[in-house]
Amino acid sequence: MSLDALMQSNRLWRAGERSAQTQALPTGYQALDVLLPGGGWPDSGLVELLAARTGIGELRLLMPVLARLSRGARWIAWVAPPYLPYAPALAAENLDLSRVLMVYPRGPQDGFWALEQALRAGTCAAVLAWPQTLDARAMRRLQLAAEAGNSVGFLFRNSTASRQPSTAQLRLQLDCPASTNAGEIDIQRLRVNVLKRRGGWPAGPVSLSVQPAAQAGQSPVSSA
Amino acid sequence: MLWLCLYLPLLPLEVFVRGGQDRPTAVACKDRGRERVLVCNASAETLGVRAGMRMSAAYALAPALELRQRNSAREARALGHLAAWSGQFSDFVSLSEPDAVLLEIRGSLRLFGGLEAFLHLVERAAAELGFRVHKGVAPTPLAACLLARNGSGVASGEDWRQRLQRIPSAYLQQPQATLSALRDMGVTTLAGCLRLPREGLAKRFGPEFLRYLDRLLGKAAHPLNRFEAPLRYASRIPLPAETDSLEALSFPLKRLLLELCGILAGRAAGVQSLVIELSHLRQPATSLTLGLVAPNRDAEHLLMLVRERLDRLPLPAPVLEVGLRVDRFESLDASSGDLFGHDQTAVSGRFLDRLRSRLGSESVDGIACYPEHRPERAWRIAEPDAAREVASVRSAARPARPLWLLPQPLQLATRQGEPCYEGTLTLLEGPERIESGWWDGDGVIRDYFVACNARGARYWVFQELRRREWFLHGIFA
Question: What pLDDT sits at residue A142?
Fold first, then answer.
C-alpha cells in the first residue's frame, strides 16, 4: 500500500489534525458537537457509550440524531434492548416509528450475530445495542461491519469497560453531574466526557440538558 | 419459427442421482421379457456396462453396480418441472415425451443476446440443475429433436435440411419395428430414407411415417400442445448417500431452488412461503417452513435463508431425500428482478428475512403507538414498516414519558411512606392521575410521578391508589 493510499484510508489519523473523514451527524447538542470530530456523531463506525448507570438520560442523548435518521429510508435497529422501548416516548421525540426495528435474539451469540448483520447490511442507519461482554476482536469486527454497511453503531456499555482498550471510533463516558444547587434538580442533566475520538485528545466534560421532550401543554425546557 | 429441443439422455438415471456420481449406477427396465440396462452413468460405462445389456452381463462386468428400477412417473414429473423451468426462456414450451422439452425461441433470441449467447445461457442453467442436456436447434420441432437425439446440433441456416440428411436413421422417432426394417433395407441415413419412393414408404410403414417425414422437413404443419405449468411446485431429490452435513444438503437444495426460481421467472411470480422437507430412514420427515417479508425469486437469497435455518436445526437422523414445496405463487413484477440489489425496500426486506430465518419470525418487530390511557397499553407490537399510518396518531397534551418501560411494573419498597429504589426516591413532577379501563375488568387508578434517587437516576413511578402501593414503571434513560 502506498503512503498516499494509507493517508487516504480511514484507518489512519494524524495527531493534531481534526479531520472530518466521515460525514458527521449533528448530535442536537451544540456543546457536544464542538467536541466531536466533524461536529457530530460519525455516520459510520462504532460509538461506545459508557454510562455510569441506567436512567441518567443516556438514551435521550441519541434522540435528536435518531429522529433525524428516522426520516431517511433506513432502519433504526435496536438489538436486544434491556427494557421495552416505549413507543409514545419515542414518538414524542419525533422518531418515525415505522423506521424503528426491534430485534430480540435469544442469547448473546445470536445477539452478536444480529448486531453484526445489522451493521453490515447497509439497510440500518443506526444500530443500538447493549452488549454484556465484547472483546477487542469482536469490537474490531463490528467496526469493520459498520464501515462496510455505512451504519453507526451505538454500543451502551458498563462504565467498567473504560479500562479495556477500544477500537471504537468514539468513546464517551456518561455520568450525571453532582447537583450543585437545588434549583437545577428539575432539569435532567447528563455529563459527557470524551474518552477517545479520532483526530483529537480526550475532551470534556460538558453538561447537557437531557430533559425528556415535553409535549404541547408543558412548559418547554431550554437547554441553556 | 425456430425450435430448441432440450433432450435429457440420462433422465431415467437423473431422477435417482443428479449430477456426477462416482459409484457405478444403472437404471434397468423390462424389455422383451428380460431385464436390460436402460442407461448407466460414466463410471459404469468405464467398466464396460452398456445400454441394452442384460442385467447378468452388467453384473458380471461391474459387481458393485447399483441398480435402480426405471420409474416413469418420476421421469414425467421431472420433465414437467423442466418444462415449467423453461418458461423463463420462451413463451411457448411443449413436452416431447418421455425425455425432451421443446421451446420456440425465435422471439427470445434478441432478449438474450443472439443464438450463441442464448444456447450458452440455457446450457449453463440446465447444468446447474444437475441435468445433462443435449440441444438441437432447427426450424421444425421434429428436426430440433432429431438433432438433439443425435447429440446436439444447430441447423438454423438456409441449408438446414441438408444438415439433417446425414443423421443416421436409427435416431428417427419411430417405432422400433420401423427402424429395424429400415436398417434391414440398408437405409442408414435420413438421406437414404428420403430417396425411397413415397408410395412404397406409405405402403410399408403406414401414412404415419410419411407424415413424420413431412413434419420433420417442414412440409406439413405440426401443431403442438402448449405446456401449461401448474401454479405450485413440489419436487424432491434423493441423496446419493445419507448425510447430515449442511454442505452436502446444500447441493440438492440449491438445485431445487434454482429450478423453482426459473419456474417463477417464467410466470413473473415470486414466493413468500416455502416448505423444505428432509426425509429420514424410519423416522418422520423433518419439515421447516420459511416465510419471507416480500415475494422473492432469488435462488441465492433463498438458499442463504434455508442454510441459516438448517444450520440451527437439530436433525433427528441423517437425511435421505430433500424436498421443496411451494403451494402458492405470488405475483412479482417482472422488472423487479433487475432492480434487486438497488431497490432499498427489496434490500431491507432481505435483511429482515435473514434475521427472521435465523432468530425466528417473532424476534423481529416494529412498534407503534396506540391510543390508550393505560401506559402499558399505549403501544403495540407492529410489523416493521407498518407503523407509518399509526405513527401519526399523536396523543393529546400530556407530560413526558420515559424511553424505557418495564415489562411489568415493579413493586417498590417504602421507607416511612416514601418509595425507594436504590435509595429513597424524591418526587420531582406529578402527580399525573391515570384512571382508566374500568370497563374491561383491568382498570387502573394510578398517580404517576417523575422521581429521582440520590445517584441522579430518573424513574417513572406510580402509586396504586386502591392499595397505596408504589411501583416502578419506567426509566428516563
Answer: 94
| B60/B52 Cα distance (integer angstroms) | 15
- Contact check, Cβ <8 Å, B458/A85: no
Reply yes or no on whether the pLDDT at B338 is more than 60: no
- Give, in order, the Cα–Cα distances in Å from B417 to each of A219, B188, B414, B420: 30, 110, 5, 9
CATH topology of domain A42-178+185-209: Rossmann fold (3.40.50)
Helix (H) or strand (E) holding B271: strand B269-280
| Lowest mean pLDDT, pick from B50-54, B342-346, B377-381 | B342-346
Phi/psi at B413 (nearest 5 deg)? -75, 155
Residues B117 and B194 in one domain: yes
Q: Is residue B420 part of a domain?
A: yes
Is B477 in contact with A74 (Cβ distance < 8 A)? no
Instruction: Count Cα atoms within 13 angstroms, Cβ side, for B141.
Output: 21
Distance CA A185, CA B255 (A): 67
Per DSSP, helices labelled H in B87-137 are 109-112, 115-129
388-427 in chain B: CB under 8 A from chain A: 388, 390-391, 394-407, 426
Record: contact B351-A211, CB cut-off 8 A: no
pLDDT-based confidence at residue B339 (cuts at 50, 70, 90): very low
Give the model's pLDDT for residue B340: 43
How many whole angstroms separate alpha carbon A127 and alpha carbon A105? Answer: 14
pLDDT of residue A179: 61
Averaged pLDDT for residues B173-197: 88
pLDDT tens digits, residue range B99-117? 999 999 988 888 888 888 9
Burial class for A136, CB neighbours closer than 10 Å (0-12, 13-18, 19+): exposed
Judge: A91–B476 Cβ closer than 8 Å, yes or no. Answer: no
User: For residue B393, what pLDDT is reported?
Assistant: 46
Hey, are the CB atoms on A53 and B457 less than 8 Å from each other? yes
Question: Is B196 within 8 Å of chain A by CB?
Answer: no
Q: What is the pLDDT of residue A218?
A: 36
Residue B458 domain-assigned (yes or no): yes
Q: What is the pTM of this model?
A: 0.67
| Number of domain units in chain B | 4
Q: Which one of B301, B340, B343, B367 would you mutate to disrupt binding with A, by most A Cβ within 10 Å of its Cβ?
A: B367
Range in B20-34, B79-93, B132-146, B457-471 with the lowest mean pLDDT: B20-34
Spans of all domains in chain A: 42-178+185-209
